[in-house]
Design goal:
Elements (H helix, E strand, L loop, with lengths): L5 H5 L4 H23 L6 H13 L2 E5 L6 H12 L3 E5 L7 H4 E7 L5 E7 L6 E5 L6 H4 L1 H8 L1 E4 L2 E4 L5 E6 L12 H4 L2 E6 L5 H11 L13 H16 L5 H13 L9 H6 E3 L3 H17 L7 H12 L4 E2 L1 H6 L3 H11 L1
């Protein structure tokens, strides 16, 4: 895909021109995916969904036990895409200024003192928020403005973040002591919540072969770094041009209301187990992610299969279940799958 904006190229162009951009989108996406697969064993669905969120312009929350390759996945994405990358290790004593930056008193060669803003690690294209649930609510909230507005405000001054900007956060679901569950407002800003599963027998053998031998995998950027940022921006423009028919839109809206307990259209299970259902941002996330899947299938129009492919990871963290659901082992995935299969 050329660095020309496909949104402009579409004006006055025919189907052949659009299909050329779609083919280039798919080629670039698969090139990144294949390069990362050289370092990350298995996790094919997780990798595709993470890249889908990035090209849809969203953030991802990765949840899994320690040692399953969450950090490796994020580092590999940054290396392969050639973007600037920073890692923030969230701890109980981490302060908001450790993320956003702060004013520092400096002295020049003439002895004149002045305050200079020292950028925090949030000023990067890809930010790994490692074990994000170990920091307190005050520190977690430092990410809210950055994730939604792509900017941070420090001491009354607003500063723009690099474009593109993505937060890939990880959390450990096993340990509860010393952790702070993410508030619903912050969870809602992640386009996907992905659950990292353990490797299969063959995958574990491959992991051992790659990590305990003398040869290590060195990833390379798929594109020159100076082209990557603009390329991603152009690909995100193309995603938003995917056509959504009124019928498909009605199906999605019907699913959202079927998962909302105070809706007359909700299912009996949702009414019994759900306290709060997904809101408009959940529907937006489903639609944007589904558009990426349509482009990967060489289509400029959205299909029902695209919606089905992304519905669970896009909505599972936006549903608040009650105590009865927890006691009976009912999960958000179960309820979403029931609505998806019935539609």
């Amino acid at each position: 895909m050329e660095n020309q904006d496909p949104q402009r190229a579409q004006q006055g162009s025919g189907n052949q021109e659009i299909m050329r951009y779609i083919a280039a989108f798919r080629e670039h996406f698969l090139a990144i995916e294949n390069e990362i697969s050289r370092a990350v064993v298995g996790q094919g669905d997780t990798l595709r969904q993470t890249l889908t969120a990035i090209f849809a312009g969203g953030h991802v929350l990765l949840e899994g036990a320690p040692g399953l390759g969450k950090t490796l996945l994020v580092r590999s994405i940054a290396q392969t895409m050639g973007l600037s990358f920073n890692r923030i290790q969230f701890t109980s004593d981490l302060m908001p200024s450790d993320i956003t930056g702060t004013q520092v008193l400096t002295e020049d060669a003439d002895g004149k003192r002045s305050f200079v803003f020292q950028q925090g690690p949030i000023f990067s294209n890809i930010v790994l928020a490692d074990e994000v649930n170990r920091a307190g609510p005050k520190t977690q909230s430092a990410l809210l403005e950055a994730m939604e507005e792509k900017q941070v405000t420090v001491l009354g001054v607003t500063r723009k973040l690099p474009n593109p900007f993505f937060v890939l956060a990880t959390q450990n679901p096993i340990e509860l002591e010393g952790t702070y569950p993410l508030p619903e407002a912050q969870l809602d800003r992640f386009i996907f919540k992905l659950l990292i599963e353990g490797p299969s027998t063959s995958e574990l053998k491959e992991i051992l072969a790659r990590t305990t031998g003398e040869v290590s995998v060195q990833l390379r950027p798929v594109l020159p770094p100076e082209q990557t940022a603009q390329r991603i921006i152009n690909m995100r423009h193309l995603v938003r041009q995917v056509v959504v028919s009124p019928v498909i839109q009605d199906v999605l809206v019907g699913m959202i209301f079927a998962l909302t307990p105070d809706s007359p259209n909700c299912t009996d299970a949702v009414r019994q187990y759900v306290r709060f259902g997904p809101g408009p941002r959940g529907a937006q996330s489903v639609l944007l992610a589904a558009k990426v899947y349509a482009l990967l299938d060489n289509r400029i129009n959205l299909a029902y299969e695209d919606i089905k492919a992304v519905l669970i990871p896009a909505l599972r963290h936006r549903m608040i279940l009650n105590f009865q659901a927890e006691a009976e082992g009912i999960t958000a995935d179960d309820l979403i799958a029931e609505v998806r299969d019935a539609s």
